[in-house]
């Protein structure tokens, strides 16, 4: 599956594929949110889960760039 094909799927189907076929990589915590990073085929998906409302509020898929850099633990000057 390509990134483009994934983005064209309905939200529920994206969740099904991501949680059944994706590989969990890592997570990061913020005040009211947990951000989980998954690898799926040749791209990544970040899931934002709001801890106060107890629900997923955002799903962002990408191949590389600033979003992926946030999980590297390397500070870029």
Word description of this protein:
This protein has 77 residues and is of the alpha+beta class. The protein contains 3 helices and 4 strands, in the order ααββββα. β3 (43-50) and β4 form a beta hairpin.
Please outline what is shown here.
The chain has helices at 3-8, 11-21, 66-69; strands spanning 23-29, 33-40, 43-50, 55-62. With 77 residues, the chain is α+β, with helices and mostly antiparallel strands.
Count of DSSP strands: 4
Please state the overall shape, judged from the principal axes of the Cα atoms: globular
CA-CA gap between termini: 35 Å
Helix content: 25-40%
Structural class: alpha+beta
SSE layout:
Layout: H1 3-8, H2 11-21, E1 23-29, E2 33-40, E3 43-50, E4 55-62, H3 66-69
Antiparallel strand pairs: 1-2, 2-3, 3-4
Key features of this structure:
77 residues, 3 helices, alpha+beta
